Amino acid sequence: MAAEIFVKKQTIDLRKKHIGPSCKIFFSHDPVKIVRAKGQYMYDEKGQRYLDCINNVAHVGHCHPDVVKAGAQQMEVLNTNSRFLHDNLVLYAQRLQATLPDKLSVCYFVNSGSEANDLALRLAWQYTGHKDIITLENAYHGHVSSLIDISPYKFQHLSDAEKNQSVHVAPSPDVYRGKYRADHPDPASAYADEVKDMIHGVHEKGGKIAAFIAESLQSCGGQVIPPTGYFQQVAQHVRKAGGLFIADEVQVGFGRIGTHFWAFQLQGEDFVPDIVTMGKPIGNGHPMSCVVTTKEVAEAFMSSGMEYFNTFGGNPVSCAIGTAVLDVIEKEDLQGNALRVGGYLASLLEQQKEKHPLVGDIRGRGLFAGVELVKDRLTLTPATAEAQEVIYRLKEQYILLSADGPHRNVLKFKPPMCFTKEDADLVVGKIDQILSELEEALGLKLQNTMSLQNGSSKRQLPTEENGHGYLGALSHDRGSSRGVPQQAKRLRT
Questions:
Q1: Is the pTM of this model over 0.85?
Q2: CA torsion sign, 5 to 58 to 79 to 311?
Q3: Among 190, 234, 346, 395, which residue carries the largest CB count within 10 Å?
């Protein structure tokens, strides 16, 4: 067991003293102190094992020995910047490019998804000479200033005066809860036409489109899967206006969706973005990321006369680690595992939808899945409190899962890619039990789709992933009958 330096209370106290208060923590009323991890499991200071369904960063599994070895061996020999020639940089760029369409051939290595998306915007602005950016509802692209401007997930609470006037928000292509749903004859075209109309509006006001940016599958937006054909049509409209298409693969790339290595490929072989950004899983926890673009865009960026240099981007250690991650994905057939286990997980979750009225929608691809909880399947009233209750109860049973989306009511599955069918059985079995208890306490049956608006007491619970709060959750008096909602005091965040 890894040594614990401080007892848990000391760690909490020191964090409060020295770490910025806006840096939130999971389960802040009773945080988990993690001291080691391996594969799809994390261990607290007492040696208790948790099944990790949250970490898409530890892509090939926590502390994978091949990745650790590659980094340590290279660190023993050399780590320096990319102004010196080193084979690791070009070997890794070659390996990475081989997973992409030929057109995407030029790499810029940086250190985080935020850096990658910020650089992607710079490339688009320089190439087009335009300024306006189109983004999607509920999108999240990073924490630096340029990306807060294009992330409605973050800026939605600002006044119009505080928002960047060159950023335009198109409807999320959500066919469950969005403007055009699954019963629409052609939701892809309908959502793409919204972007076309937005471009027309920007032109009328004298603006010009530099880029459209979207996560290939929306993550913080609630595991939204765009309808096939949407990206192709959007790209056509954007390119006609002189802009570029940026695909953000930070959350969903590197084989997670199972059928393809990159999530943008779900749209079809006829769709190729102009810029692709990568992060999180690329280094399995090591801070690295990448922007890949076309030769034409890269040459335009050079024509500005400004050198681009990144101190740590593309260093030999990072490239050795990135190469090891690609090796493990291939050697252990983790993309195939995502397809097989993801399909099995989806079938288990679909069974829960047939059984539980709280389950409104199951969606996802591979090991990127979402379960949207609703109080009413007709009105789609978000079951925010119930979703938070599920994740807190799972934590009590040593399973780590998060909830997200604009209403914080979507249970998010994005575990390490070594996740197994046995893991899926475990977590879905626990969710089944928790939902049954909640529905019994609320008097809810499958044929009874009445609203639960007045059916539960709520409490304010701590802020969750990416610093966003949620609306509340059911509370339970541990001395009373399990599953009966009780009034609870507000907990401090």
A1: yes
A2: negative
A3: 234
